[in-house]
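User: I'm putting together a teaching handout on how multi-component assemblies are represented. Below are the sequence lines for each component of a complex, exactly as they appear in our records. Could you produce the 3D structure of the whole assembly as C-alpha cells, so the students can see both representations side by side? Please keep the chain order the same as the input.
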Amino acid sequence: MAAATGAPMSTDAVTGMPCLAVHGGAGLVERTDAAFLALARAGLRAALAAGRGVLEDGGAALEAVEAAVTVLEDDPCFNAGRGSALTSAGLVEMDSAIIDGSSGRMGAVAGITALRHPVHAARLLLQHGPHVFMIGPGAEAFARDHGALSATQDWLITPRALLQLSRAQATAGALVPPRGTVGAVARDRQGHLAAATSTGGLTGKWPGRVGDTPVIGAGTWADERLAISCTGHGESFIRMVFAHSVAGAVRHGSSPREAVASALARIASLGGSGGCIVADRQGELVLMQHQDMFRAWWSGAQEQVAIFGDD
Ligand code: ASP
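Assistant: Of course. Below is the structure of the complete assembly, with chains in the same order as your input.
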C-alpha cells in the first residue's frame, strides 16, 4: 500500500447536537466512475437517513450507529456485509465492533463468513454475551441463536469484489485496500455517544487475518467523551491502538481535531494511511483522512455527503 507521508489531510468539522457521521472507507478514489460514485453517495445518504431517523425520534446513539451501518452492510458498493473484500482464497471473512460509550458495553466479532449483518452480531454480543469478542463459527452460532440473519458466500460475494481480487492477484498478491469499510459515530439527545465499524478487511488478505475494525481501541472506540470509527491500513491502526490513543489525547486536553491530526500523522510515519470519524459529547463532529473518504454527516440543520478530500 502506498505510504501517505506528505499527503495533505482533509478535515470537516461541524458543531451541533444530536449528531451523526458515517464513513464508507478511505483511500484514493477514482474520479472517473461516475455511476459508481453516484451509487455510493446514495448509499451514504440512505445510511445517514437511517441513523438520523433514530436520533430524531429520541432513540439512542447505539441504535443509530447500528441502523446506519446495517444499511451500508447491505449496500454492495461498500466493503462490509454484501460486497466485502475477498481473502486470497476468494472468500468473505468479515469483522465488526460496536461500543456504547456511556455504559462501556461493547461487542466485537471477527472471521464472520455466513451472517448478513456482522454489526448486528456484535450488537447481540454487547447485549447478551458474557464475552466481548468472538470469532468464526462460535460467534455465528451465538448470533443465530439470538435471531441474526444468515447469508451465503454466494450472496456476500459480488462481481466487483471478484474483480478487485483478480486485480490484486495480478499485481503479485499485493494487499489492496478496497476503500469501503463502513462505520458510524453518533451523539444522542441525552449526550450519549456510540461507535460502530464493519468491514471485509483488505482484498487478498490471508485467510484468518483480522484487521483493526473489531479490535477494541484500534479501529473502534467510544467512551463518555468521544466516539470514533476508523478506516485504512488496519495493521498500522492496530500497532498504535489508534482510536484509544485519540481518546487518551482528548482526555488529556487535546481537541478531537488536534488528537486525530497527530494520530493520523503517526499512521503516515508507520507507512500506513486512512481516516476516521469522531463525535464528541458537545456534539462536534470531526471527519479527517489522508486522501479521500466516503463520508456523510448530520448535525442540526446541516446534512452533507462528500467523497474527495477537496469536496
Ligand atoms: N481497516 C480495515 C482493515 O484493515 C480496512 C479498511 O478500512 O479499508 O481491515
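A couple of points students might notice: The longest strand covers residues 19-27. Residues 25, 177, 179, 181, 199, 201-202, 211-213, 219, 231-232, 234 surround aspartic acid (CB under 6 Å).
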